[in-house]
Amino acid sequence: MDSSPGKPSFLERLSALLSREPEDRDELLALLHAAYERNLLDADALSIIEGALQMSDMQVRDVMVPRAQMDVVHLDDPMERIVQFAVDTAHSRFPTVGESKDDVLGILLAKDLLRAFAGREFDLRDMLRPAVFVPESKRLNVLLREFRVSRNHMAIVVDEYGGVAGLVTIEDVLEQIVGDIEDEYDFDEAGDNIRLDQNGRYRVKATTEIEDFNAAFATHLSDEEADTVGGLVIRQLGRLPKRGESIVLDGMKVQVLRADSRRVHTLLVEHLTPQPDVARD
């Protein structure tokens, strides 16, 4: 940050613009947009402030992962199945249930599975962390404050009858402010659109251009209706897909690995029949 003497700081310039206290949120937003137009705020800062203001009007039900899309571990699952499930879904936390998704017993952290491979005694029930339950109607700004105080990263969402309606993570909340957050399973570089995983499948950014997808997988997908493979998936389904949904494109199984209510982020791609390696590691 440029702190040269005599040059007003960002806060000083913004304070000058807001010298007259806005009377309501609309007026505040108008002043912020005026600050952006006068180069007192950049586009990212304006977007973050707008997201923070809008978040107070949003409820958990607006951003939660619905019950049908929850990836859960069953208490009576064998260890081999749990480990494979953790690898396939690539999450760091899993609600663990008994007979149904309404019977949430706790939260399993993927890192706790390492105990089983370190030769230590492992009992799934003993490894579970307490689950936090929140109502669908809870405001996001309140939930974020509770996440920060309790240091929890996931909460189970319940409906008015006490049944499980879905789950919400701290990432779901923060993304309403700052946009999509990359995690340890996202791509490290913008140009690294196609990556081979240890199971011989490919993680593909939804923003990968169809031309590049065709070159990597020797397919012949048309780019007349969409520019990216994610856009093509949406066109084929006629709607935004849900996580876990899959379609077949020119002999390739394309599964939605990450998606939210606004866009598709990551796809899992594999040949329906064994093929030689065609994409870069």
What would a concise description of this structure say?
Mean pLDDT is 80; it is low at 277-281. 32% of the residues lie in helices and 20% in strands.
SSE layout and pairings?
Layout: H1 10-17, H2 25-37, H3 43-55, E1 65-66, E2 73-74, H4 79-89, E3 93-97, E4 104-109, H5 114-117, H6 124-127, E5 133-135, H7 140-150, E6 154-158, E7 164-169, H8 170-178, E8 194-196, E9 202-205, H9 210-217, H10 229-237, E10 246-249, E11 252-259, E12 264-271
Parallel strand pairs: 2-3, 5-6
Antiparallel strand pairs: 1-7, 3-4, 6-7, 8-9, 9-12, 10-11, 11-12
Helix pairs in contact: 2-3, 3-8
Descriptive keywords:
disordered C terminus, four-stranded mixed beta sheet, alpha+beta, 281 residues, 20% strand, five-stranded antiparallel beta sheet
Explain this structure:
The model is unreliable at 277-281 (pLDDT under 50). By secondary structure, this protein is an alpha+beta fold. It is built from 10 helices and 12 strands. It has a 5-stranded antiparallel beta sheet, covered by helices on one side.
Strand residues, percent: 15-25%
Number of alpha- plus pi-helical segments: 10
Q: Provide mean pLDDT, rounded.
A: 80
Structural class of the helix and strand makeup? Answer: alpha+beta
Summarize the biggest pleated sheet. 5 strands, antiparallel
Low-pLDDT parts are 277-281
In which range does the helix fraction lie?
25-40%
Strand order, largest beta sheet: 8-9-12-11-10
The coarse overall form would be globular
Radius of gyration: 23 Å
Distance between the termini: 38 Å
Task: List the helices and strands in order.
Answer: HHHEEHEEHHEHEEHEEHHEEE
Number-wise, the strands total 12
